[in-house]
Amino acid sequence: MVKKHMRHVVLMLPFMAVISLLFVISPLSAAGEVTAIRGGDLYTITDGIIKNGTILIKDGKISGIGQNIEIPEKTKVIDARGKVVMPGLVAVGAEVGIIGYPNITRIGDSLDPFEFSVSLALASGITTSMVSTGRPSGSNPLWGTNAVIKTYYGDLDQMLIKESVVQPVMISNREWLRKTTFIQNMRKAQSYLRKLTEYQQAGDKKNAKEPKKPGGLDAYLRLLRREVPAAINASTADDILAALELVDEFAIRMILADAVEAWIVAEEIAKRDVRVVINPRQKQRPNEDISGPSGSTLENAAILKKAGVKFAIIPPSTSFETWGVVGRDMMALPMEAAFAVSGGLDEQTALEAITIAAAEIIGVADRVGSLQVGKDADIIILDGHPFHHKTFVESTLINGKVLYEKAKSIYFSHITRDE
After folding, report:
1. In whole angstroms, what is the distance from residue 133 CA to residue 190 CA?
2. Which of 11, 38, 81, 247 makes a 20 to 30 Å CA pair with 199?
3. What's the total number of domains in the chain?
4. CA 192-194-200 angle, 5° bins
5. 264: which residues sit within 8 A by CB, 6+ positions away?
6. Are residues 342 and 396 in the same domain?
7. Contact 375, 367 (CB under 8 A)
8. pLDDT tens, 46-56?
9. 286 and 319 share one domain
């Protein structure tokens, strides 16, 4: 048994050596060390494009950005002339960096900084993602757990940003039992909060009785207190309208995912300031049983933009793969946004949908999603326009550290834009 085990270890060593060549991790820099990315076109996302600009990075944060930035002596300089420099991409949902599916209660305890998908995410330019696990059970409409992580290969301490950023709710017009359970529990939690407010505002606490907190309703209380948004999958216009009724009754924050027919009720979504997650290429046949509009359209994103709805974009598959149908998974997130552009969306909003808007939806826009002084130095350097099908990520930095370089990648180093 010992010899068999040792043989397996020896066989694994070359494999691990090959995997380690996929990306490069810079050694930890000394405190106060400065890095400069110089000469590229800086797509700040929130403040336009700065031609031939410079970004200064200190202690993992962006400390300066502009055209006339003085570079201190002994600064490590990254030459980005002729390149596009932009914030790392933000995915509102991806299968990355987690082990132990599906029985996970806390994602921070299940992260693997050496997981293969993390290195592929870096090669794809995705530096931040919301990850989720779990599944609905019985009549319980609330399910799963989630967190926002950074795809920081090799350092567990740098991965977790925030646990439990949304509350998944599994209901639709067809799931009456779950919907009824959800509404009943929300009303119970609402009644408790109302009584608690009356008690706290009572002038005579001696004669007032503090209401007893009902058990099993903590998640519902978080929704009512607007601490997290409810995340509901609603692809049809009917399901979307049913979800919006919950916003009307309980004044909760909401994210609509899989919103294929959001274009039909875009104005109603905008009135309630609900966020949306869409896949521009998702197909859904029109419902021949109804006379009104139905089904999918490539113009979904453009119509949502016109109505004033904030949205994020993800591909059909949320996994990172080196096989299957090219351009349909997380390895090609910008291509999904490019399809929205082909449906009439402007390029600026398409870029926002995979950076700052996505960061806002998952609650981390104060740290990532744009190139601004004070934000985390999560930056990617591209060899072309973000929406060009031949564009590759040349370098990926997280917290100011170079974690990926295409020139040293076993997958992509041999590919040039001319091929």
Report:
1. 28
2. 247
3. 2
4. 100
5. 237, 292, 293, 294
6. no
7. yes
8. 999 999 999 99
9. yes
CATH number of the domain residue 309 falls in: 3.20.20.140
CATH of the domain at 402: 2.30.40.10
Residues 220, 189 contacting (CB under 8 angstroms): yes
**Using alpha carbons only, what angle is made at residue 359 by residues 345 and 385, rounded to the nearest 5 degrees?**
50
Q: Output the pLDDT for position 146.
A: 94
Tell me: do 36 and 177 sit in the same domain.
Answer: no
Q: Is 289 strand, coil or helix?
A: coil
- The answer to whether residues 171 and 178 touch, using CB atoms and an 8 Å cutoff, is yes
Strands 401-405 and 393-398 turn out to be: antiparallel
* The two three-digit tokens of residue 311, written as one number: 């949205």
Asked if the structure places residue 242 within a domain, the reply is yes
Nearest to 148 by CA among 163, 168, 166: 163
Quick one: DSSP state of residue 26?
P
- Can you give the length of the chain in residues? 419
* Residue 122 burial (CB count, 10 A): 30
Same domain as 280, residue 194? yes
Q: CA–CA separation, 351 vs 43, rounded Å?
A: 9
- The mean pLDDT value for 124-138 works out to 89
How far apart are the C-alpha atoms of 65 and 60, rounded to whole Å?
14
Q: What gap in Å lies between CA 332 and CA 321, rounded to an integer?
A: 10
Q: Are residues 381 and 335 in the same domain?
A: no
How far from 329 is each of 21, 118, 332, CA to CA, in Å? 23, 14, 6
In the numeric block, which tokens belong to residue 171? Answer: 């209901």
Q: 399 lies in a domain?
A: yes
Please report the beta strands in 59-97, taking only residues with DSSP state E, as ranges in sequence order: 61-66, 76-79, 84-87, 89-91
Helix (H, G, I), strand (E, B) or coil at 405: strand
Last residue of a domain, one of 342, 361, 380: 361
The domain boundary residue, chosen from 335, 361, 387: 361
- The domain of 406 spans 1-86+370-419
Q: In what order do the strands lie in the sheet containing 275-278?
A: 167-169, 230-233, 254-257, 275-278, 311-313
What does the alpha-carbon distance between residue 42 and residue 84 come to, in Å, rounded to a whole number?
A: 6
Instruction: Please indicate, yes or no, whether residues 307 and 405 belong to a single structural domain of this protein.
Output: no
Q: 262-299: per-residue pLDDT in tens?
A: 999 999 999 999 999 999 999 999 988 888 899 999 99
Is 92 domain-assigned?
no
Pair (193, 329) in one structural domain: yes
Task: Round to whole Å and give the CA distance between 293 and 318.
Answer: 28
Query: Is the residue at 25 inside a domain?
Result: yes
Of 49, 33, 30, nearest to 41 by C-alpha is: 49
